[in-house]
Amino acid sequence: MTDFFLSNFVTIITVINIPLAIAVMFLERRNVGVTWAWLMVLLFLPAVGFVVYLVFGQNLSKKKLYKLNRRTRETMNALIEQQRREFRDHRIVFNDDAAERYSDLICMNLTSGFALYTQNNHVDIFTNGPDKFDALFADIERATHHIHLMYYIVHNDGLGRRLVDALTEKAKQGVKVRFLVDDIGSSLLKREFFGELVKAGGEVAYFFPSKIPYLNIRVNYRNHRKLVIIDGQIGYIGGFNVGDEYMGLNKRFGFWRDTHLRITGYAVLQMQAHYMMDWNLASHTTFSREVLGLFPPAAITGTTGIQIVSSGPDQTLEQIKNAYIKMIHSAKQSIYMQTPYFIPDESLLNALKLAVLSGIDVRIMLPSRPDHKMVYWATFSYLGELLEEGMKCYLYEKGFLHAKALVVDGTVASVGTANVDIRSFKLNFEINAILYDTKTAMELKRIFEEDMLDCTELTYEQYQRRSRLERFRESCVRLLSPIL
Question: What is the DSSP string of 328-339?
Fold first, then answer.
């Protein structure tokens, strides 16, 4: 029997692989690019490829997520319909005249993403870890009612322990502390790390945890959001996670260049609502009687228009990607984009290409060295088409660029957690703040131009001089880009 199996090994594996491939094609009902990518995995890794598929490729059931009670859903629908009528009847008075030209973008986010538009917000921008975390710790120290945190990565190091110690002290003072972390992003974090915080009355939850210790087969569909809400009055959103490398203390990466926002105003209440839904999905304890205390009357702290737009595999539409495309199509002068990973799908790539061909000043900034090599190779495979048409590409040399920012015409901008890749648009739970404010957008544009001083420009001529090995490697990895 053993001799028969060994002599017919290839035939047996091929026979097994055929029904597995059929299952991928017909049961998953994915888009064509993703289907072909998985078929290649099955072709080149017979049998083993299906195990990889079970880990990385399972579709997420959309029926069980984010269940809202009838009263909450009716209230949300009423608010959205009211604001839609106000836009339709031209009854919105914009604080910034330039914001009016983005009424269609606002309506799209409102209709498909349930993103209410508020204008009484104030925004502070942070571009380095020390400044961001100094402000965060000061706000934590002043907290009196609750502190809600959500991070993809939390490390047990100097910054991580300092944060948990500060939260533990606030929990002892009677402040309600909730900490949501992603089970894969923080897979190296032992549960004991939060022991003292839990003893003090804090609560900790893990997003999509594994039932088997140290083995989580749900590698996709991770919560990549980074949110902090303090007393329902202050919100943090952006790219920084929790760890010493984000303070620039990791020798491999050096200076960590990221973008994070501190927001006060009504937009914080939207951030709170998103946090509550994620918490209810991940935790055994849900929000109940204390809901009113979590949504205090927001102070009018500024004039910045903001929409909080979320996306995830539970949704049929790719909200953040659609917002990017709408912003790109609205451009008249310039498009400035910063992202650590650039793996666009055909729709986003075509939008950028059309902008370049239309004479728009399109600039993309990427890190000069990778943290994930295959993703970086795939990124370079997409640059040639845009560079050939006249796009400008800058490679950040000062450290590692992790910022996720898009600025159009210096009048509208997006900052958040979503990278410009298919994983962020389709597979991860992400959240961005779209800012309709010329002053804030111009500041983000200025920051981009300042970062250019720490960059090397990648020209199309330099891109063409890549070695044959680099070209072959990039071409191979690009075939797998829909599932990277």
Answer: HHH-SSEEEEE-
Widest pairwise Cα distance in the chain: 80
Contact between residue 224 and residue 274 where contact means Cβ atoms under 8 Å apart: no
Closest CA to 377 of 454, 467, 314: 467
399 bridge partner residues: 255
Cα separation, 209 vs 217, in Å, equals 10
Amino acid in the structure at residue 231: D
Residues annotated as part of the active site: 224, 226, 231, 402, 404, 409
Q: What pLDDT is attached to residue 129?
A: 98
- Count the Cβ atoms, other than its own, within 10 Å of residue 85: 10
Please state the pTM of the whole predicted model.
0.87
User: In the structure encoding, which two tokens stand for residue 128, read together?
Assistant: 């380095």
- Number of helices and strands (H, E) in the chain? 18, 19
Q: What is the mean pLDDT of residues 296-310?
A: 86
SS3 content of the chain, % helix, strand, coil (to 5): 45, 20, 30
Q: Provide the token pair at 282.
A: 């991940």
Give me the helix-helix angle, 319-330 and 103-113, nearest 10°.
170
Degrees, nearest 5: CA angle 472-475-476:
85
Neighbours of 124 (CB within 10 A): 14
Amino acid at position 458, single letter = L
Q: How far apart are CA 76 and CA 484, in angstroms?
A: 35
Q: Pick left, alpha or beta for residue 114 (phi over 0 → left; psi -120 to 50 → alpha; otherwise beta).
A: left
pLDDT in the model for residue 114: 86
Cα(346)–Cα(321) distance, rounded to whole angstroms? 12
The CA distance from 56 to 45, in Å, is: 14
Which residues of 233-340 form beta strands (DSSP E)?
Answer: 234-238, 255-257, 260-264, 304-311, 334-338
Percent above pLDDT 70 for the chain: 79
Which of 357, 368, 419, 351 has its CA nearest to residue 391? Answer: 357
